[in-house]
Amino acid sequence: MIGRTLDHLCNGLRVLLGFLIAALAVPVGMQVLARYTGAIPVYLWTEELATFIFVWAVMIGAMIAVWDGSHFDVRVIPDATNPLLKLLQDGFVLLMILGFALIFAWYGIEYAKFGYIQNSVMMRANMMITYISVPIAGVVWTIFTAYRLYEAVVIYKNSKKALA
To answer: Which of the residues in the chain have pLDDT under 50?
Structure first.
């Protein structure tokens, strides 16, 4: 049940990412039109908006990649065939991801607080809009990775039972 809930959360993040990428096309398109055609005036706020959207798109993309197991996991040695070695191999990667996720979550709070006291130059938007993406990503990475670690342990236990 938890896995299904997290999978639905990840699907929601995929939809949100799609909307963000579509939204990113608007300010970037305005910048291109303004700079290369002169059809519209140059609006400097479009660059800030594109940056805000891009940062969120990157962080949400990283959250999705952690759930899919495609972002931080690079194999330099072949997958183990022994269930215990496979657990150790996957567990090491997941623990490293979990460590970085906790760092992002913990120190991201201070980072977001720092953003709260700043405003963007052109849009005058509070920078916490962007900075808050770091601790949110850390929390989501932590949840996703903890569940993947739990799954790896369950797979190991089930493989032990199958061998017995």
So the answer is: none
